[in-house]
Amino acid sequence: MQNKGKSTWGRIWYFIWKDDSVWSWIVNIILAFLLIKFIVYPGLGFVLGTDYPVVAVVSGSMEHDGSFDDWWNSDNCCKDRICAQSKTQEMMYSDYEIAKADFMNFPYENGFNKGDIMILQSGKKVRVGDVIVFTVPAQSDPIIHRVVKVSEADGEYYYSTKGDHNCGSSPFEQNIQQSRVLGKALQRVPFLGWIKIIFVEIISIFKW
What we know:
Layout: H1 2-17, H2 22-48, E1 54-56, H3 68-72, H4 89-94, H5 100-103, E2 117-121, E3 131-134, E4 143-153, E5 156-162, E6 176-177, E7 181-189, H6 194-207
Antiparallel strand pairs: 1-2, 2-7, 3-4, 3-7, 4-5, 5-6
């Protein structure tokens, strides 16, 4: 019985790690998914202090056009339509008392792109300029934007945010409760998020 047991485990080990069959590849993919979902992801979240340690950037709302100065002086809000008043990014951030020198000392001062992966840490200590991920009621995907204002009321912190590429802050970005903050951006991994974006697009096609 003992030799049989060893033989069985030996065959399983060979099938998983050395067999080049299609079924072996499928099993490896499933095992990798389970390992990441139930061990790596929760473990990383425990270390970083958030239940959402990794998110994919699924929009271009934090992208910059050209160099920092090109973006800072751009009036991108009026590129595709007629505006009563042209307003540059510099003018918009001045409404929050954020100057160019302040912004250049912020994390990700040159923004980041759709398709990037952001590794998050605890969002309990957030300052103006930090990039946070937060939930929006009745919306499935969380938002990742930059904090432009921090306020406090009754012992609770509230945040207002703006996407670097956007013309301003949407109503849902005003007075974000601390309880809605999933985490604060710690590290950027370029392009890797396209795996999720493409996968979601494929799934949505089959739903139709």
